[in-house]
Each structure stands twice: as structure tokens, then as C-alpha cells.
Amino acid sequence: LTLALPGEGITALAGPPGAGKGAALRVLAGRLRPEAGALRRAPEEAGFLPRAAPLLDRSAAGNLRHALAAHGLPRRLRAARAAELLDLAGLADLAARPALSLAPGEARRLALVRALAGAPRLLLLEAPGEGLAPGDLRPLESLIARLAAEGLEIVLSTAEPGPALRLADRVAVLQRGRLAEEGPAGVVLRHPRSAAARDWLAG
């Protein structure tokens, strides 16, 4: 798989289940070694939100303070930074709430901003809105769009066209671990050239 990231905006890795989207994200995140070739971007630059990102049995703020400590932020700065991240996620009023009691959309937004604890330049999101109800999906996608607008490069995976259509600047359609088609989102999603992209869009 050869994929050049643009350095800005939102890129969607798209395709049906088993296309290789999750593996590609894990290679970018440094969680999986490629069988061949090389990664030309340091994984240390990336924050990663996997599909399964369990929260700790502590408060929402406690989850963030723990992540910030793991990334080496001095103790005196952790409370203020955790508050900033909670505010970014729209969870400021839930700082003391046990994280395991949060609603699904709230929990996903908390997990997403936890992935920002290391101040990454690249954020990798594995199927970020999968399984969420529309009312939970809207604030999550607003958060993703806001982060991109503020200059954070984002790569997300999706098995459905909807998230790519709503969020992505560029789309890369994968098939069996290979790049089938890549280009501006509006072009790939509305005028696909490859059979793989057409099949995926047709469901």
C-alpha cells in the first residue's frame, strides 16, 4: 500500500470490512509493523483512537490526567490541560462523572480528546462514529471537523460512505489491502473511476 498524506485536512480510508483500513491505521500509529516497505512518518507524531478504546474506572477528568501523565506533562499542568480537553469535547460539566457511566457519544468524545494528550500532529481515528445514534454522531463529527479546521491533520477509517461525505477532504478507497482509488472526496464519492469504489458505494 502506497499512500501519501497531504499534511492537512481530513483523509478517509474507505472500503468494506476487510479492506485493510484498520491495518493501515495501525501501521501509521506504530502499532503494527508493515510486512514490506517503509513508513516515512514517525509514529510519535500520531495520536490513535482505535475502534475499541476502553476508558479507565475513574472520572472523566481522571482519564485525561492519566493520559497526560503518561505523555510526560508535568503534574502542575495536568488539571488545566484536562479541563481544556473536556471543554473541547463539550464535557466540561461532566468532569467529575465516572467515565464508565457516560453515554456512548460522551464516552467516544472523551476517548477522542484523550488521544490528543500527546499533542499529536496527526490524529488517526478508527471508525470513530460506528454504532452511535444520530444524536451522538453529530457532536462527535463536529468535534472532528473543528480539530481539522484548527490545523490538525486527521485520517479516519469508515466502512460507510456517510462519514466520508460529511467530513473528508480526500478519500482513499482500499480493497484487500491495496489502494484502489484516491482523490478529492467529491470526485471519488460522486464520480468513482474504479470498480472497487463503485462496488463500495453501491453497498
What characteristic shape results from the CA principal axes? Answer: globular
Q: The biggest beta sheet, please?
A: 6 strands, mixed
Number of helices: 8
Terminal Cα span: 23 Å
Q: Give the strand content.
A: 15-25%
Order of helices and strands: EHEHHHEHEHEEHH
Give me the secondary-structure category: alpha/beta
Task: Give the number of DSSP strands.
Answer: 6
Low-confidence stretches: none
Helix coverage percent: 40-55%
Tell me briefly what this model is.
With 203 residues, this protein is of the alpha/beta class. The protein is 40% helix and 16% strand.
Describe the fold and architecture.
The chain has 203 residues and is of the alpha/beta class. The protein has eight helices and six strands, in the order E-H-E-H-H-H-E-H-E-H-E-E-H-H. The chain has a six-stranded mixed sheet, with helices on both faces. Strand 5 (170-175) and strand 6 (178-184) form a beta hairpin. The radius of gyration is 17 Å and the shape is globular. It starts with 9 loop residues before the first strand and ends with a helix.
Please supply descriptive tags for the structure shown above.
203 residues; alpha/beta; 6-stranded mixed β-sheet
Give me the secondary-structure topology.
Layout: E1 10-14, H1 21-29, E2 46-49, H2 60-70, H3 75-88, H4 104-114, E3 122-126, H5 134-149, E4 153-158, H6 161-167, E5 170-175, E6 178-184, H7 185-190, H8 195-202
Parallel strand pairs: 1-4, 1-5, 2-3, 3-4
Antiparallel strand pairs: 5-6
Helix pairs in contact: 2-3, 4-5
